[in-house]
Write a structure and sequence with these properties.
2% strand
């Protein structure tokens, strides 16, 4: 009897059709994020709203909503999202919301949010999903008719749609998200079989974008100089970078203890949002920070596995795009906190405070889980046949 329980558990796990480990990694990151948001935001929340639980309660509510959405989405056949009507409708809504966001009041000098009362959302989060779904279907269809290398039939239309989304996001302005979407576009185009010479033809575009949107814009160029030499203005442009590095260095190997960090107490800007990884490094040390990075690495492995074993080409490209979307955000966020990149307002997926970011990241995981479920079903059908 003692040996029967583990055996039954293993049999039950074998019956799970979707990628169990991907789901476990995601839920673990979400729960860890709720804990760290509470730890990082208590002081800020008390000062701004008179309650240390303000951000915790909101993050918990969004986590419950997002996990519920993930469960619903994972039960919907992903081929539904690949229908032409759905894709163009989603793209149209995304572009419309991106335009509307430009007319809402700015926050910190940017028009990235649409606010309705106390609720607000970033339409760029929906636009990311819409673009990945569009590229997955479009590239798979072009490949099926042998036109993936045709510049006019494939590269140009895909580039124009991507350019429309990226252009509106730049206007917010949100150059970090625009650059991330540009990298995802290149990754999906390359995976879709686009000739390397066409991708290399895009090299001048980042250089021109850097000149017009960074070098010619004083406050963005100030970020670059602060990134290169933060010590020159420790109380001004270099403040964020230096405080982040102080937090990381203070943690040492094992950290100062959960909720015991000092830099989050009005030294580290937005400790519960863009710089939450610095709080993790300070309170949980090198061990905690590396463990978190390894979990994202595990997520990447499982996502690529889902892509590799997807039942069709559209599923492969969709899984690759969604995985790249989440991992690219994590890479950008952690790189900024470690002063490997200039400061950008990109949250750490599943961990940083932010409702729309968490919701749409979990929706993306729901789609990944559905793709993995159909992989298992196709494999079982082949075995039975």
């Amino acid at each position: 009897m003692a040996n029967s329980s583990p055996s039954r558990l293993l049999d039950a796990l074998d019956e799970v059709q979707w990628d169990l480990w991907l789901a476990v990694a995601t839920i673990g990151l979400v729960l860890f994020g709720v804990v760290m948001v509470y730890s990082a935001s208590g002081g800020v929340a008390s000062e701004r709203f008179g309650s240390a639980h303000h951000f915790l309660l909101r993050q918990f509510a969004w986590a419950v909503l997002g996990l519920g959405a993930m469960v619903v989405v994972m039960r919907i056949d992903y081929h539904y999202y690949l229908r032409s009507g759905f894709i163009w409708g989603l793209l149209g809504i995304s572009l419309l919301l991106l335009v509307l966001a430009l007319f809402f009041p700015a926050r910190n000098g940017a028009h990235r949010w649409i606010s309705l009362g106390s609720l607000s959302a970033q339409p760029s989060e929906l636009a990311k999903l819409a673009l990945v779904i569009f590229l997955a279907r479009f590239l798979a269809r072009r490949e099926s008719v042998g036109e993936v290398g045709n510049f006019r039939a494939t590269f140009l239309p895909a580039g124009l749609v991507t350019g429309a989304v990226v252009g509106l996001i730049i206007m917010e302005p949100d150059l970090g998200t625009a650059a991330m979407l540009g990298l995802i576009f290149l990754a999906m185009m390359f995976a879709g079989g686009t000739p390397l010479r066409q991708l290399l033809a895009l090299v001048p575009l980042p250089l021109l974008a850097f000149y017009f949107f960074v070098y010619r814009v004083p406050w963005r160029w100030e970020r670059i100089t602060a990134f290169l030499h933060p010590e020159r203005d420790p109380q001004g442009s270099g403040f964020q970078v230096l405080q982040s590095l102080i937090a990381i260095g203070s943690g040492g190997v094992s950290g100062v203890g959960l909720a015991e960090g000092k830099q989050k107490l009005f030294y580290l800007p937005e400790p519960h949002a863009d710089f939450i990884f610095a709080v993790v490094a300070e309170e949980l040390g090198l061990i905690g920070a590396v463990t978190l990075v390894l979990i994202f690495g595990f997520f990447l492995w499982r996502g690529l596995k889902v892509s590799q074993l997807a039942p069709d080409r559209e599923g492969q490209l969709l899984a690759l795009g969604l995985t790249s979307l989440i991992i690219a955000q994590a890479f950008f966020n952690i790189s900024v906190v470690l002063s490997l990149m200039p400061t950008k307002g990109i949250p750490l997926p599943f961990v940083s405070y932010g409702g729309s970011s968490l919701l749409f990241a979990l929706v993306a995981v729901g789609v990944l889980l559905n793709i993995s479920e159909q992989r298992d079903e196709s494999r079982r059908m082949r075995e039975r046949g």
